[in-house]
From TrEMBL, chains A, B:
InterPro entries cross-referenced by the UniProt entry: DinB-like, DinB/YfiT-like
Protein name listed in UniProt: DinB family protein
Top-level taxon of the source organism: Bacteria
Domain DinB-like positions: 19-158
Pfam assignment, any one: DinB_2
Length: 161, 161
């Protein structure tokens, strides 16, 4: 048996399903958590759940620009949750962050499903054409795989709340 | 541009690299942790680091049989770390578990790299041929993607020690 172009689409769909599984698990757990639980620390002295939530919203929102899918929905979150540690500046209300989480993923999930295999194997927006020619693994699909692990990493923390 | 069989190997290699990245990160962090840190709880009342380590050894060791790569190296860990909760039965010494972690991955990583794309898209050992015919996504590659998320999930916890 030889693998074919059909397999490429099939394999990319497996990677998309792995991503969606992580989002769905997080969704379900988030529904079970009260705001008070979410606002507590995941472990003594560590990030609060609400900061981890904001961080994941910001990282997912950033995929719109990184993967060429459009503009970020909540660009103000980038500084707050990617470049600023927890408990140094005020952050949006927990209810707002829950809404952002659903909004970003509701738009992101179908946009990811719309990318073609050729697009998945093309460069993402943070790598130059020159560097991409040397390192073709720096493609959109690799971003998805890496973000799936990142999402799972933080889910392992949120589950401790 | 059409995708080709070459792309299939290329994409599978991306998934393998994502897996190896998680193993390497865990390795590096494990080296930094003292036995005492590893024997403490990841959060109050939660699993000890050493239990999470044993769990990951058992899950990785199980990949030998699940992916048709050979026999498990430490079959006695399956009951201890997959079916038994932490702090209910005695577990191996921390130094032993560290050794098992390295041993299993040292054998597993090259074995995974040796699978062909056709084998990756073939069924894993826990699904029947009949069920696999209906659900071809239940292949070896899907196991790898799922275990990569699982490894990242627990790394997000070990990092709290």
């Amino acid at each position: 048996m030889e693998t074919t172009a059909t397999d490429t689409r099939f394999i990319i769909n497996l990677a998309l399903s792995a991503w969606e599984t992580q989002i769905e698990r997080f969704d379900k757990h988030l529904e079970k958590l009260t705001d008070q639980q979410l606002e507590s620390e995941i472990a003594p002295g560590r990030n609060r759940g609400v900061y981890v939530l904001g961080h994941l919203v910001a990282v997912n929102d950033n995929l719109f620009t990184l993967l060429g899918l459009g503009e970020r929905m909540y660009p103000q979150l980038q500084d707050l949750f990617i470049r600023t540690p927890d408990r140094t500046v005020p952050i949006p209300a927990t209810a707002e962050l829950r809404k952002y989480w659903y909004d970003v993923n509701a738009k992101l999930t179908p946009a990811l499903r719309n990318l073609t295999p050729e697009e998945w194997l093309g460069k993402h927006s943070s790598v130059s054409a020159e560097d991409f020619a040397k390192e073709p693994t720096r493609n959109k699909l690799n971003v998805l795989l890496s973000r799936t692990s990142h999402q799972a990493y933080h889910f392992g923390q949120i589950i401790l709340l």
